[in-house]
């Protein structure tokens, strides 16, 4: 009966999605079922970035995981994950069979090939640098240089444990100044409170609590809604106000 039900879900929502993950002989987990398929790039292949990228790819999203460290990129493309999360490793194996995720060092290509950029920085102090404009500058500059020649609307999602107005203003203002584009019209900006623990990152990602997302505009809110479609948590939106 269960297998018939799972097959029905696969037929209904597409063959490029994973309905359930079995990571032990007697343990399996039913995954969220998304009605949408977005093209996403995830910046950072630490614990948070790997969990978000693999987790979304399993739901049918097309993911490019980006990191400047070639070793992390090679490891991901060979099916290795940054920590000992058994669920994460098992799911990556399944995701690779679907060709829903690839890792790369080329952020420019990733941005031009996707609808939105998720910055997921963690691990060895990387979550901390999300609040440090000096360390975020290279990432923002590279994103800005790419968006300058991009004619399509692109959403930038910053995932960090806590959000600060200074960080919001730094990122939004810098991108506007470098690109000559207008926030909310030519590109969007969202901030998501994301805390994923090592060895439990995938479980945490699929069980996100109700959260408040700071968004620059309605189009960005709609993309976030599609990104997390099928998840059980509720999202409350607050408007990003440029200072």
Strand order of the largest sheet: 5-4-3-6-7-8-9-10
Gap between N and C termini, in Å?
Answer: 57 Å
Rg over CA atoms: 17 Å
- Strands, total number: 10
Q: How many distinct domains?
A: 1
The CATH superfamily turns out to be NAD(P)-binding Rossmann-like Domain
Uncertain segments: 123-130
Give the count of helical stretches: 10
Shape: globular
Query: Hey, roughly how much beta strand do the residues contain?
Result: 15-25%
> According to CATH, what is the class?
Alpha Beta
The CATH topology turns out to be Rossmann fold
Structural class: alpha/beta
Largest sheet: 8 strands, mixed
Oligomer: single chain
Describe the protein's architecture and organization:
- The chain is α/β, with parallel strands linked by helices and 243 residues long.
- It has one domain (34-239): 3-Layer(aba) Sandwich (Rossmann fold), CATH 3.40.50.
- The protein is built from 10 helices and 10 strands.
- Helix 2 packs across helix 4 (86-98) and helix 7 (133-147) runs parallel beside helix 8.
- The chain starts with a helix and ends with a strand.
């Amino acid at each position: 009966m269960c297998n018939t039900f799972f097959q029905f879900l696969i037929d209904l929502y597409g063959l490029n999605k994973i309905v359930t993950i079995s990571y032990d002989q007697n343990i399996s987990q039913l995954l969220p079922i998304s009605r949408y398929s977005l093209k996403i790039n995830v910046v950072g292949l630490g614990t948070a970035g790997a969990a978000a990228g693999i987790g979304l790819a399993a739901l049918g999203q097309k993911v490019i995981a980006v990191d400047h460290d070639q070793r992390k990129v090679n490891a991901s493309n060979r099916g290795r994950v940054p920590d000992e999360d058994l669920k994460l490793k098992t799911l990556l194996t399944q995701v690779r069979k679907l060709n829903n995720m690839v890792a790369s060092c080329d952020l420019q290509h990733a941005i031009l090939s996707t609808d939105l950029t998720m910055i997921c920085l963690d691990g060895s102090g990387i979550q901390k640098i999300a609040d440090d404009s000096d360390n975020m500058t290279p990432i923002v500059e590279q994103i800005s240089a790419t968006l300058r020649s991009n004619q399509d609307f692109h959403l930038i999602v910053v995932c960090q444990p806590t959000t600060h107005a200074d960080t919001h203003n730094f990122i939004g203002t810098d991108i506007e100044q470098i690109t000559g584009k207008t926030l909310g019209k030519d590109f969007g900006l969202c901030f998501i409170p994301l805390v994923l623990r090592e060895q439990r990152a995938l479980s945490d990602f699929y069980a996100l609590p109700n959260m408040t997302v700071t968004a620059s505009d309605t189009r960005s809110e709609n993309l976030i809604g599609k990104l997390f479609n099928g998840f059980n948590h509720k999202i409350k939106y607050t408007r990003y106000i440029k200072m």
